[in-house]
Amino acid sequence: MQGRRKKDVDARDKRGHDGGKSDLTTSEPTLIQPNYQEVHGARPDVPKGAAPKALPPNWRIKAAVPSIAVEALAAQAYRLRMEQEVVNAAGAECERCGKAVALCVCDTIVPLDNRIEVLILQHPQEQDRALGTARLTVRHFRHAVLKVGLSWPSLTKILGRPADPQRWAILYLGSAKAAALAPDREVVMLNRKGEPERNQDALLRDIEGVVLLDGNWSQAKALWWRNAWMLKCRRVILGPPRPSRYGQLRREPRRDGLSTIEAAAMLVSRLEGRPDIEAALTASFEKMLARYRASK
To answer: Among 227, 237, 273, 280, which Cα is nearest to 258's?
Structure first.
């Protein structure tokens, strides 16, 4: 008799804790109590592996999701995606510049055929969609690229073609100020010591592209330190004749701090000798700011 009971116990152990085989096709969830030590830790008065009498608050659910539930989830995801597309189609946000329709100025932009290529690297945490200008800047140039991320192995990888960093200028984030180093110049090229390079005009004429870092001051610094290839680029600083047009809308850490679109406008127009570039970008920026202020 005892031998028969032992066989029954062994059979139940083989079938599982619930005394039967688990059914993976069932749609009813099975409540599984976790091991006591997993939840509460070991206790001297509780045997190893023993479960508490009461169901703990963090019990787990073990159940296979039936195919009908998977289909329902897929249908829900599709519906949500379609609803979002309907909202976008209705014009809630411009697909080109990412601005709300009330702030979008894309209908007045005519892309400029620029000789100096523009590369904007945006920190992924730059979330100011209302006042940010990176995408708006790129919209103004036929030869411009916007990349969002933290690091890239090289300038060549970013552009997808061979590129010499020595012929690219990056807007430098150091403490040097153009007004103090070269008061008569609005664009100043620096060496690694933070001193003005000799033969400024000749070096600036050799530039074929510019790199701008988009984000707040700390985000731009993070981009600088995460990309060693930037050390090979020429360093330039700007001496703007006036503060940023942001005014009170966004506080700049330095008086000579500019928005991305203002910096691109000033730098490219000076390198190419084309005042029309700065005029076009500035007009779009001022129009966007005017619409933003009117909406408040």
So the answer is: 237
pTM greater than the 0.85 cutoff? no
Report which of 85, 80, 87 is spatially closest to residue 101, judged by C-alpha positions. 87
pLDDT digits 0-9 by tens, 210-265: 999 999 889 999 999 999 999 999 999 999 999 999 888 887 767 778 999 999 99
Question: Are 269 and 210 spatial neighbours (Cβ–Cβ below 8 Å)?
Answer: no
**Alpha carbon distance 74, 285 (integer Å):** 42
Q: Rounded distance, CA 281 to CA 259, Å? A: 11
Separation of alpha carbons 5 and 221, rounded Å: 74
> Contact at 8 Å (CB) between 230 and 211?
yes
What is the rounded distance in angstroms from the CA atom of residue 206 to the CA atom of residue 168? 9
Beta bridge partners of 170: 211, 235
With cut-offs at 50, 70 and 90, classify the pLDDT of residue 287: very high
Rounded CA separation 138/285 (Å):
13
**Residue among 203, 180, 179 nearest 191 (CA):** 203
